[in-house]
Design brief:
The structure is a single chain. The chain is built from ten helices and no strands. The protein has 200 residues and is an all-alpha fold.
């Protein structure tokens, strides 16, 4: 590799790392605000702060990254709707069932796509990952089942544990679980990697 190519590669890596850091802050920031505010002032103030932080995160994503990813956008809409219902009706059940409904919706979309021959993960991530059709189908099914698992897990957490425990798990439990699950898919990505497009 020439020195010029090394410089370009290094610059691309820095840009990628910067974008990944911004995405992490934008996605995790509102959850952290939710946790801190809930622990100090309670679930209703925490919900209001969560809604405000979510709007700020969307603006930051648009300003710094030039785009808003589909999944965070859908999640943000649900945060605003269910958060609004929580504050309006003074009933924290709405904000607590929001993750169940969002994860259930993602699972239904992926499974519905599989049933109708549409691979939505491929549509969203096709430019980032190169997989065979079988690979996309298996990956889609796995993520659909994972979303079902998250929905069930959320139901268990809010129904059988305290509000503070639920908030803490939502902030500090879901992301590590999702990260570990994503790492477990590396073997599948390698096995079903589509190299035909690279050889053309």
């Amino acid at each position: 590799m020439s020195d010029e190519n090394k410089v370009v590669a290094a610059e691309n890596t820095q840009v990628f790392d910067r974008k990944q850091l911004i995405k992490l802050v934008v996605e995790f920031g509102p959850l952290l605000v939710f946790f801190v505010t809930n622990s100090r002032f309670g679930i209703y103030t925490g919900t209001g702060a969560f809604m405000v932080a979510t709007v700020i995160s969307l603006i930051a994503s648009w300003t710094l990254l030039g785009r808003i990813a589909v999944m965070p956008l859908i999640t943000s809409v649900f945060v605003l709707v269910f958060g609004g219902l929580t504050l309006w009706l003074q009933d924290d059940h709405f904000i607590k069932i929001k993750p169940t409904i969002v994860n259930g919706l993602f699972a239904a979309i992926l499974i519905g796509g599989l049933a109708t021959g549409r691979l939505f993960l491929k549509i969203v991530f096709g430019e980032v990952m190169r997989l065979s059709e079988d690979g996309w189908r298996i990956l889609t099914l796995r993520w659909a089942l994972f979303f079902v698992f998250l929905a069930v897990l959320n139901e268990v957490m809010w129904r059988f544990f305290s509000t503070d425990t639920w908030v803490a798990f939502k902030v500090f439990g879901i992301m590590p679980i999702t990260f570990v699950f994503a790492l477990c898919q590396i073997g599948l990505l390698k096995k079903y990697e589509d190299t035909t497009s690279e050889s053309r």
